[in-house]
Amino acid sequence: MPNLRFAAPKERRVAVVTGGARGLGRASALRIAEEGRDIVIADVLDIGADVVKEVEALGQKAIYVKTDVTDEAAVKALMAQAVETFGRLDILVCCAGILGKELPFLEQPSELFDRVMRINVFGVFYAHQAAIPYMLQHGWGRCVTITSGARFGSPNQIPYCTSKGAVWSIVSALGNAYSKQGVFVNGVEPGRALTEMVVPRFSAEHIANPGNPLGRYSDPEEVAEVVEILTNERNTYTTGSVWSVKGATG
Question: What is the per-residue pLDDT across 70-129, written as a single tens digit (0 to 9) for each?
């Protein structure tokens, strides 16, 4: 580790990753495991059990906990199970999220708006509120949530862009709330990464040449690199920030 006088000792810490069964969540879980962390995969998709095997193949311990992040009691039970199993909880990565439907505003059903908000915003709120107390007990914690450039507004994605704007506000507020106690909260804002949420929405031609400055979309593993940095002991001075991983400025 670099000579960082405020860095905590490198330890075998425990990370909870919501939405960890696939996409950015899976990539983040595996990258964090490579740094010697034990992992709790939380998802509604039972393929989360397959990610557990991948983590174990890296020499780390892992469990899958089927979790609906819109259920506050289930999220509290998730964090309690993480501590009961591994004795601690140090890292939270919130990747659980849905896009909803791309429709003009007047065609967006209120039920869909409610569902998107409950997964993308309430789920983040519940997870942080349940996890941070365990981190405060040990005086160290790192939280990262995936947001999106859609937070600036997208006419056909109003539920989604509203939810990601709310996540940005949560990150900004919590980043200032517990930093003196050693708990940092940040966000990561990908450009479009090649995940199950993105690939089906575009033609093969567009995926191959999206027209952005780098001329390609990112792999989930590239986004996971930044997630890992923000959850590492090497992160000694970054909190309340949203890191852009877009392959471009802005």
Answer: 999 999 999 999 999 999 999 999 999 998 888 999 999 999 999 999 999 999 999 999
Active site residue 126: no
What kind of fold does domain 14-235 have according to CATH?
Rossmann fold (3.40.50)
Q: What is the pLDDT of residues 140-198, one digit of tens each?
A: 999 999 998 878 888 889 999 999 999 999 999 999 999 999 999 999 999 776 666 66
Catalytically annotated residue among 64, 126, 160, 217: 160
Residues in the chain: 250
Per-domain residue ranges of the chain: 14-235
Q: Supply the angle between the helices 23-34 and 220-231 in degrees, to the nearest 10.
A: 50
In this structure, are residues 224 and 195 in contact, taking their beta carbons and an 8 Å threshold? no
